[in-house]
Design goal:
Elements (H helix, E strand, L loop, with lengths): L2 H55 L19
Length: 76
């Protein structure tokens, strides 16, 4: 194998190593982003559950349901 061709092959091998390192870094960051999204989603669900409990506690129908579109004086 000619010397120039060997140099080209070695350069490409080094480039493969560089790309593999970048791929590993991207994967680690993707895992971090996924964990953060999971935490945010859990927080949102917790807040929504708290809001539903609060709304159910404010229910005046006595049926456990929320009346939508009704004003405070009972007029629709």
């Amino acid at each position: 194998m000619p010397l120039a061709r060997r140099a080209c092959v070695l350069t490409r091998l080094a480039k493969i190593d560089e790309v593999k390192k970048l791929a590993g870094s991207i994967q680690k960051n993707a895992v971090k982003v996924d964990r953060e999204c999971t935490g945010i989603s859990a927080g949102i669900h917790r807040l929504l559950d708290q809001a539903l409990v609060s709304l159910a506690g404010a229910d005046t129908t006595g049926e456990g349901g929320i009346v939508v579109g009704e004003s405070h004086d009972g007029a629709a």
